[in-house]
Amino acid sequence: MTGTGGGYWRRLVRRLSADASELDADDLSRKVAAVGAVRACDCKSGEEVTVLGRLRSVELCPRDAAATLEAELFDGTEGVTLVWLGRRRIAGIEPGRTIKARGRIAVRDGRKVLYNPYYELQNAS
Fold first, then answer.
1. How much is the pTM?
2. What is the rounded distance in angstroms from the CA atom of residue 122 to the CA atom of residue 97?
3. Which of 4, 47, 112, 124 is most buried (CB neighbours < 10 A)?
4. Of the candidates 18, 52, 46, which has an alpha carbon nearest to the alpha carbon of residue 34?
5. What are the tens digits of pLDDT across the range 50-98?
């Protein structure tokens, strides 16, 4: 009982003493591994990746004449900005929604970005 018991108690104390945002980040990063997605912190520029996370924010960014819809996806480790060019609104893309997105990762202004990603809305769980 020393090997598993110590781990159990350590996890229990951590869950009882951690704040809600830390626990949520841990849950998200576990889901990422379960569905076979890549953690955002492990993504490198130029790679074709699949990421899973919760949308923190969604905003319309009118730059010049072309509108873009930007959403920040957080997977428990790091954020990835999803950018849909020429879109003002996409049904289901709203803060708090969990989605899986796939595309080629780029870096813009020091942030990881997926342009026009393929996406799947996930069931709330």
1. 0.76
2. 8
3. 112
4. 52
5. 999 889 999 987 766 678 899 999 888 889 999 999 888 899 999 989 9
Q: What is the residue-wise DSSP string for 24-84? A: HHHHHHHHHHHTTPPPGGG--TT-EEEEEEEEEEEEEEEETTEEEEEEEEE-SS-EEEEEE
| β-pairing verdict for 111-115 and 48-63 | unpaired
| 3 state SS of 98 | strand
- 111-115 and 79-85: which strand pairing? parallel
Query: 96: which 2 tokens?
Result: 């708090």
What proportion of the chain, given as a percentage, has pLDDT over 70? 75
Structure tokens at 52: 């899973």
Q: Work out the burial of residue 104: count CB atoms within 10 Å of its CB; fewer than 13 is exposed, 13-18 middle, 19 or more buried.
A: middle
Dihedral angle computed from the Cα positions of residues 98, 38, 117 and 119, in that order, rounded to the nearest 10 degrees: -40
Written as six digits, the tokens of 98 are: 């969990």
